[in-house]
Amino acid sequence: MDFRQYLIVVYSVGFLKPIVKFPIKICDFILARAFGNTFIEFELSSLCNAKCIFCFYPDIEKSDKKLERMTDVNFDKALEKIEQLDYSFISFTPTTGDILTNKVWDEHLFKATELKKIRQITFYSNAILLNESNQVKMIELLKKDKKKKIFALFFSVGGLDRETYDFMFGVDKYDAVVRNINAFLVKLKNEGIVTNVSIEFRLPKDYNLNFTDAMKVFNQVGYSFVNINVLDKFMSNNHLPLFKELEYMPEGKPTHTACAYLSKTRFSADGGIWADGCVVSEVVDDESLRLGSVDDSIELIEKNRSKIINDWEKDMIIPLPCKGCTFMRID
Ligand code: SF4
Fold first, then answer.
1. In the chain, which residues have pLDDT < 70?
2. Which pTM value belongs to this model?
């Protein structure tokens, strides 16, 4: 049993709750930031129900790309590959898409919790489809996850009013998202489940979020393990459409050291395997970060990764999504 699991067991003893609540939050904070550049980004679906202005999805949707849910066959092959790779953390975060558009997302996550090598799992959704049925599925999944590998759930939202949400997410779903997250937190609290829930605000540059109001709107039941985070500086590259209402991270100058995020691995919904997986890493009609597919050997996947890194470091051949990227990480 690891330290966090131990704290959660102690938390279940009623009178010790106030004492261990803070250490659990500290563990979650450290865990969420400890993985640096070596983890898996897993995309169970490339379909999305929003049109976020900070994402390539609106452009991808207009392209010829087939948007799809990962098949069971490809999912099982992906797990076999993961067993051969050297990672301990999976982030179920589509590059573009929303996980809840895959109806069997919970079965897939459960299988992932059973992988020996994987010790931590996170989940990311816009909560538009976090309806009653998906809330119940998540509760059941968290109960079955005896080793507490699923330690953080991230829900992206846009402001505390319908207009800001519609502008950021491109759909009229503010009321549904507020309702879904609150109903889910009620279930977590009633079931006595401990998991870190991060409400991730995506905001225009002139928006000042009041954190107390944010808690009042999204955590009406007062569930103890909710964080509010704000992203008001967005990633971009030379290809993402830019909006004057958003502030973007400053661009770094590429050097002869390749971006450290190339050592991350993304499993895409169509069975592809890619380097990286951040939100700007898939440009329409470009496959320069694609390493192969779940049908290829790990040797071939890693050979292709080495080629991308070597081309960058020796000849400054920089993959298209990395050109002008403001998220580049040179360790
Ligand atoms: S430079 Fe940007 S797009 Fe390229 S791997 Fe790094 S973070 Fe991803």
1. 1-37
2. 0.91
